Amino acid sequence: MIKYGELSTKKGNIKFFINTLYRNIENKLKGYDVKISRDISRMYIEFNEKDLDKILKKINNIFGIHEYLVAYKVDTNIDSIKNNILEILKKESFKTFKVETKRSDKRFPIQSLDFSRQIGGLILKNIENVKVDVHTPELLLNIEIREHYTYIYLNGYQGLGGYPNGTLGKGMLMLSGGIDSPVAGYLALKRGMVLEAVYFEAIPHTSIEARNKVIELAKKLVKYSNKIKLHVIPFTEIQESIYKNIDSAYCITIMRRMMYRIMEKLVKRTKSQVIVNGESIGQVASQTLTSMQVINDVTSLPVIRPVACLDKLEIIDIAKKIDTYDISILPFEDCCTIFVPKHPVINPNLEDCIKYESTFDYESMIDKAIEERLVIEIIEEENHKFEDLL
Fold first, then answer.
1. How far is the C-alpha of 91 from the C-alpha of 66, rounded, in Å?
2. pLDDT of 126-177, one tens digit each?
3. 227 with 377: CB under 8 angstroms?
4. What is the pLDDT of residues 40-65, one digit of tens each?
5. Geometric angle at alpha carbon 48, from 43 and 49, rounded to 5°
């Protein structure tokens, strides 16, 4: 049983959100013997019991779910409900319990509170050494009475929340090999976006291992989506020209401006709406507010920074939760870290940036890098060997 949570606030658009969640669950459970049904308040998945653990693992990675529970579906008949409850609870170990009844079918002859009391008395009479605790019970027994069927379920599992992927547009994620950008991608997916990812590499200054690291990070993120296209941008010529022609203090600022120019073109090509990245205010020189303003000047697109107001420890906590942290700390540098100057400018001047950029033909280099990019499609549990594409 799937409970929607935040989706229930959508009122006039709720069917669109529920139908998208339905399709996402359907895609995740391809290959399993399931029957999925839905209404305005719940979604139900009937399944083969042997697949329970695998299905729960899949459901746990789907955005748009507030809570999910393993429910028993029985006939809406008083004796059937009582007999099934006793059979279910005999398999459980608990000392305290509480019963909550929701009577959606008002033709059911016993009111909710009275039925909860009846079931509580039944449990006390038939199961030894247990007592009622209405505040902090070890076991919460829920009974949802409907016209034809009644659903019986125990304590639930917390879902990821957020909105279903595909309900709120598409973004292009600047995915480096660091800790922050995968977390930003995860948080963007949580708000209903579909993502494609962009990785800037500068071979031979960066390594194939660094690229593989980013592929592994994308594979972690794809657990929360259906697929992610990873665009690998050959950035060597642009980066070498920057360090050859520009004051070293401004190199990072100019490099980021070039990346944003490429991102804008890719966003338009892929029919996306926004740029997404892992910038966190004040974390490095290019992430001061002045730097962000100057770097942002090259694009008119919205730039979404999901971790902008989180500190590093908060970001690390999320990275560990989504299992990207151990990959992110592997010692393979990306192009943002290989040429960091000793004293990068933290309050760059826009006029100086424009003057420095006029010293080389970056437009043709940008177009060339986009045309020569490598696109890798990453699908969850894909058996393809990515080394064949490298």
1. 26
2. 999 999 999 999 999 999 999 889 999 998 899 999 999 999 999 999 999 9
3. yes
4. 888 999 999 999 999 999 999 999 99
5. 100
Question: Which residue intervals of 104-250 are DSSP H helices?
Answer: 112-126, 180-190, 208-221, 236-245
Indicate the DSSP class of residue 281. T
Residue 146 and residue 212 in one domain: no
Q: Are residues 146 and 189 in the same domain?
A: no
Residue 291 and residue 298 in contact, taking contact as beta carbons nearer than 8 Å: no
Q: Is 50 left (phi over 0), alpha (psi -120 to 50) or beta?
A: alpha
What is the residue range of 315's domain?
A: 170-389
Containing 44, the helix (H) or strand (E) segment is: strand 42-47
Q: How far apart are CA 120 and CA 118, in angstroms?
A: 5
Give 326: exposed, middle or buried? Use CB within 10 Å, 0-12, 13-18, 19+: exposed
Question: To which H or E segment does residue 72 belong?
Answer: strand 71-75
Q: Does one domain contain both 314 and 384?
A: yes
Q: Write out the two tokens for 386.
A: 């990515």
Q: With the C-alpha atoms ordered 25, 387, 209, 174, is the resulting torsion angle positive or negative?
A: negative
pLDDT of residue 390: 39
Angle at 297 between CA 291 and CA 301, to 5 degrees: 115
User: What's the rounded Cα separation, in Å, for the pair 151 and 101?
Assistant: 10
**Which residues lie closer than 8 Å to 313 by C-beta, 6 or more apart?**
none
- With vertex at residue 86, the alpha carbon angle to CA 84 and CA 92, rounded to the nearest 5 degrees, is 110
Cα separation, 3 vs 312, in Å, equals 33
330, 188: one domain: yes
Determine, yes or no, domain membership for 165. no
Count how many domains the chain has. Answer: 2
pTM, 2 dp: 0.90
